Amino acid sequence: TPPAAAESDQHDQIKENLPEAYQSEIRRPQDPDQPEPQPDYLAVIDLSRPAAADAASYELLIRKIDELRAHSPCPRIILTTADPADASPRFAVNLGIALARQSFRVLLIDADPPGSDLAAIFQIADSPGFFEWRRGQAWISQAARKTQLAGLSVMACGTPDADQTSPDLDLNKESHRWNNLTNTFDVVLLFSPAALTAESQTPPPPASARHLLDLADGLLCLTHQSQNLTRLHSLASQLTASHKASCLGPILLKD
User: Is the pTM higher than 0.70?
Assistant: First the structure.
């Protein structure tokens, strides 16, 4: 029997003699012909298990976000992806909760018109929401709603601009509106899966969706598939070269 096969058989015998609760802790020895995976991602999050199981990964993300606060007292972080159809709000919700539990005052915004799931998840009204607030049609006190978790507020999506092409938002006025958030929040998370590909979409998304890239401080780029990493890096590099936001890193999500 080859040494590798004998070691594998011994591994299975060890597992058979352990209580079930401990069996998952015994890992099959690494195949010597297969190299250890390289850390290509800022974090790997398994959405199929409780967020507490990935506590170390969330702590790393929180440190990254906190570093931005040295340059912006209330950093605006866009959560986006190379494939908007593959987006899930679960990571955004878990990150918002993790930040709030670390005593950050967090505003979690649904900037995803096709999905608009956060209102249902937190059982809040659909409007007024993000797009009404951006157009100056609602105060922050009307659009942002507190949750049962202290420190976490959520803003539903609302109704995006009807005009898909003309930029009818005044970025100077809107920048002032965003800057006022520093009085109430420490971090703003924007769930906007389409932001990363906004400039290449046909037909183009609402002007307000494209302007997010000029208003954000950082990007967290999400993917469910490891083969998307090259495209994710390419899109992020193109955007950060021409917009204010910096890319904090790619995150691999597992279901």
Answer: yes
